[in-house]
Amino acid sequence: MKILVLCSQATNTGAKLRAEYIFKYLKKAGADAEYLTPPLKSMPFMLDFALSFFYYLFKLMNKKYDFIFVEKPYPNTIIPILLMKSDKTKIIIDIDDLDYEYRKGLLSKFIEYIQKQLIKFAWIITSHNDELIRLIKREYPAQMKNIYKLKQSADLELFSPKNADKQKVRSLKKQFKGKVILLYMAHLNIASSLSDIIKAIKLIKNEPFILLVIGGGPMLSYYKNITKNTNLQDKIIFLGQMNPKEMISYIYATDVCLVYYENKPVNKYRASMKLREYLALRKYVVANNTGDNKLFQNYIDLTKPTVNAFADAIKKRIKNIDKSNKKGYKFIRQCFNWEKEGNKFFEFLKENL
Question: Quick one: residue 346, left, alpha or beta (phi over 0 = left, psi -120 to 50 = alpha)?
Fold first, then answer.
């Protein structure tokens, strides 16, 4: 059984990470798997999609696979697959959010139309959020029996305390001595809700904390400007983009990790990867009640989906750092573990070869 995994989006996105974890754990499960790393970072006007089309067309030339797993349905990957695949190749398309809902006007309608046409070529559709799966069933009734829940999970082999650089952790603790360290990480694009987190930080700016922001992306400069314009430069530090291995030491040094999504319809289809990774590292998490965050309500500080409620929860947690953060790890290990998820998915594919 030969499996190809690829991602339609750029190399500095969360979608690329999901594709990488799926590849890693299919391979660990015993699959003859190959992964094509996206060739470009996010570019203005979605130019990376147009340019990567030719990359995937070249890379797929004269290649044969039993299954091709595609993270997000976009023409830059699906069209080369359709041109190059054999008659026996089964296409798996992963839908992890509603991309078109983050856009407006004609661009939103265009992306929605294109994706609906491409999804028709899927042998099965995978997704991670129950609300999103229900929507997919409504939108694609012909595919109703061809949907597989591939849960968003954490790589416990990677996101483990043993991988934290203890010297770096001590250095960060010393650097911010006397302050509670908060952390937020994300690809800073139109799907990020960092502007609301900054509003929450402004409400509690007199508390003894520092917020570290990990992530790059097209809106990094925008968020830096908001921070400057609200006079929060002494409370928020932007660390830029890091690979997952670099992130671990910063997360492990952190006292409280933040997850926030705006309270709008598109975000009820989210399944936060970072929430799972924070819990895997036994961290406190303050999150608002959007997407599937409510699944973790017994292990995190879950707030109403408003800036004021989120700010209040952070303030309370700053004043009370206890040992309750250890509990979420067991839940992640049992229910949202990429190794288990990869093994299960590999067995499903073997049964359907």
Answer: alpha
| Residue span of the structural domain in which 191 resides | 161-334
Same domain for 169 and 132, yes or no, is no
In this structure, the answer to whether residues 29 and 138 fall within a common structural domain is: yes
- Residue 140's CB: how many other CB atoms inside 10 A? 17
Q: Report the predicted TM-score, pTM, of the whole model to 2 decimal places.
A: 0.94
Tens of pLDDT, residue by residue, the chain (353 residues):
899 999 999 998 999 999 999 999 999 999 999 999 999 998 888 899 999 999 999 999 999 999 999 999 999 999 999 999 999 999 999 999 999 998 889 999 999 999 999 999 999 999 999 999 999 999 998 888 899 999 999 999 999 999 999 999 999 999 999 999 999 999 998 889 999 999 999 999 999 999 999 999 889 999 999 999 999 999 999 999 998 899 999 999 999 999 999 999 999 999 999 999 999 999 999 999 999 999 999 999 999 999 999 999 999 999 987 766 678 999 999 999 999 999 999 999 999 98
The runs of H, that is alpha helices, within 161-219 are 166-175, 194-203
CATH number at residue 309: 3.40.50.2000
Indicate the number of domains in the chain.
Answer: 2
Residue 156 to residue 67: CA distance in whole angstroms: 26
- Same structural domain, 53 and 169: no
